[in-house]
Specification:
449 residues
Length: 449
C-alpha cells in the first residue's frame, strides 16, 4: 500500500489533539497556570476544527465534482484525490466519469455542428413556427425561397393569400400543395409539417419542397398521353372518312360528266358532289392538323452542351432580324454576367426562344413602338434564368396558368401549341417556365434552369 497523505495527516492531527488534551488535564490537576490552560483550550478548539476540516476534505472534493457536473464543467481536475492512496479508487472513478463526460460533450458538439451544416445545406427549405405566431427560417434554402427575413406567420400573406391559407391549414403529420408568389416568379411547393415541444413551447417544423419541375413533368406526360390517344383515335376515324369522301366525290363527278345537263337528277347530284368535296377538304385539313400536333406527344431527346448565353442571344437576333425589321420592333439583349453559361440542347433552346419572341411580336402587333428584351441572369437561388420581355398588353393573372395548356390560345389565328412546346422543352431540361408582369407594362416569359 502506497503513502497515504490522508492517513498520515489524520494520525498527526489526532496525536496532536491527544497530547493537547493530556497536557490540559495535567495542568488543571497539578498547576494553577490559568493563562496557559486558556491558551491550550484555544489550541484544542483550533485542532478540532482543523481535524474536522481535514477529515471532510474528500466530501468537499466530491461536492465540487457534483457542482462541476451540474454546470457541465468537464475541465475541473481533482489531483488531491488522485494522488492519495486512501482516495485512489474514488479519484480514479471521478476522473473516469469526467473523461466520459468530456467524450460525450465532444460527441454532442460534433453532432450539433454536423446537424447545423446538414440543415444549412439541405436543398429543402425548413422553417419553424410557434403558438404565439412566431416564425424562424432555419436554413439557407428557406432564406433564398422567402427572399426576405421572416419573423411572424402573419408575413406569409406577402407570398399570396392562398399560400398563407395553405400554411395555416397545414396540420402536424400532414402535407399540402401550395403556390408561393415571389418577385422572381411563383413556385409550386409541397409543404409537410411535424410537431415538437422545446423548452415547454409547442412548435411546428415545416418543410417546403419545390415540386414545380415534377408537377410540370407529370402534367406534360398526362397531356402527351391524352394527345397520343386522341391522335390515334382521330386518325383511325378520319382516314377512312377522308378516303371514302374523296372516292364518292370522284364517282359522282364521273356520273355527272356522263349525265345530260337537263337531267332532273343532276341538280341533286351536284349538291351532293359539293357536300362531299367540302367533307373531303375538311377531313384532309383535320388530318393535317392532327399530324402537325402529334409532335407534342413525342418525347424530346436532348443533346446537352455548355453554351454561352450571349452567343445564344446573338444567334437569335440574326435569325429574327428580318421579321423584327418588317414589324418595326426593337430587340435588345442583356446578359449578367457576360460570361454566363448554361447546359442545354442549343437547337431546342433556340426553338423555345423563337416561339417566345414570336409570341411577343404577336402581342405587339397593335403598338407602334414595340420593344422586346432578351435577358440572361442568375436568380436569387443561383439558377440560370433566360427571359423574354415585351412592352405589350401583358397576360392577365387568371390566364397565366392556362397559357401552357395545349391548344389554348388568345391569338386570332393561334393554334395553342407554341407555349406548350416551350414547356415541353423546359421539362426536357429539368427547367421550369414562369410568366410575370414586365415592369412598366407587358409580359415576361422565361425559363429557369
Amino acid at each position: 500500500m502506497g503513502f497515504s497523505r490522508f492517513h498520515t495527516g489524520m494520525a498527526l492531527r489526532t496525536a496532536a489533539l491527544f497530547f493537547t488534551i493530556v497536557a490540559i488535564a495535567w495542568m488543571i490537576t497539578h498547576t494553577q497556570w490559568y493563562v496557559t490552560i486558556t491558551l491550550c483550550l484555544a489550541a484544542l478548539i483550533a485542532e478540532v476544527a482543523i481535524l474536522t476540516r481535514f477529515a471532510t476534505e474528500s466530501s468537499r472534493e466530491v461536492a465540487r465534482f457534483l457542482d462541476a457536473i451540474s454546470f457541465d464543467d468537464t475541465m475541473q481536475t481533482f489531483p488531491k484525490l488522485s494522488r492519495d492512496s486512501a482516495y485512489r479508487d474514488l479519484g480514479a472513478a471521478i476522473t473516469r466519469v469526467l473523461e466520459m463526460l468530456r467524450a460525450g460533450r465532444s460527441e454532442r458538439e460534433e453532432q450539433r455542428r454536423y446537424l447545423q451544416i446538414l440543415i444549412a445545406h439541405v436543398p429543402v427549405a425548413l422553417l419553424s413556427t410557434d403558438e404565439q405566431g412566431g416564425a424562424q427560417l432555419l436554413n439557407a434554402a428557406a432564406r433564398r425561397m422567402f427572399e426576405r427575413p421572416l419573423s411572424e406567420t402573419s408575413q406569409f400573406t406577402r407570398h399570396g393569400e392562398a399560400f398563407a391559407i395553405g400554411m395555416e391549414s397545414l396540420r402536424p403529420g400532414g402535407t399540402v400543395i401550395v403556390r408561393m408568389e415571389r418577385t422572381s416568379g411563383s413556385l409550386q411547393l409541397k409543404a409537410a409539417s411535424t410537431e415538437l415541444i422545446l423548452g415547454g413551447v409547442r412548435r411546428r417544423l415545416i418543410s417546403l419542397q419545390n415540386i414545380e419541375n415534377e408537377m410540370s413533368a407529370q402534367e406534360m406526360v398526362a397531356w402527351q398521353t391524352v394527345m397520343r390517344v386522341m391522335a390515334h383515335e382521330v386518325m383511325n376515324s378520319l382516314t377512312p372518312v377522308s378516303s371514302l369522301s374523296a372516292t364518292a366525290h370522284q364517282r359522282i363527278r364521273e356520273v355527272l360528266a356522263q349525265m345530260p345537263a337537263e337531267d332532273p337528277r343532276a341538280a341533286g347530284l351536284r349538291d351532293a358532289c359539293e357536300a362531299l368535296e367540302a367533307t373531303a377538304r375538311r377531313t384532309e385539313g383535320l388530318l393535317h392538323f392532327v399530324q402537325n400536333h402529334r409532335r407534342l406527344a413525342k418525347r424530346l431527346v436532348t443533346q446537352i452542351e455548355v453554351v454561352r448565353v450571349q452567343r445564344i442571344f446573338a444567334r437569335l437576333q440574326r435569325l429574327l432580324a428580318n421579321e423584327l425589321a418588317n414589324r418595326d420592333i426593337e430587340l435588345t439583349a442583356s446578359v449578367d454576367p457576360e460570361t454566363l453559361e448554361v447546359a442545354v440542347d442549343p437547337e431546342l433552346l433556340d426553338q423555345a426562344l423563337i416561339n417566345l419572341v414570336r409570341n411577343s411580336m404577336e402581342a405587339l402587333r397593335e403598338l407602334s413602338t414595340g420593344r422586346i428584351v432578351l435577358s440572361g441572369y442568375r436568380d436569387p437561388d443561383g439558377r440560370v434564368t433566360i427571359a423574354v420581355s415585351d412592352n405589350g398588353p401583358g397576360i392577365s393573372p387568371d390566364l397565366r396558368d392556362r397559357v401552357f395548356v395545349p391548344f389554348f390560345t388568345t391569338k386570332r389565328q393561334g393554334n395553342g401549341i407554341g407555349l406548350t412546346l416551350v414547356r415541353q422543352i423546359a421539362s426536357a431540361h429539368s427547367a421550369t417556365v414562369f410568366v410575370t408582369e414586365t415592369t412598366g407594362g407587358g409580359a415576361t416569359v422565361g425559363l429557369r434552369f
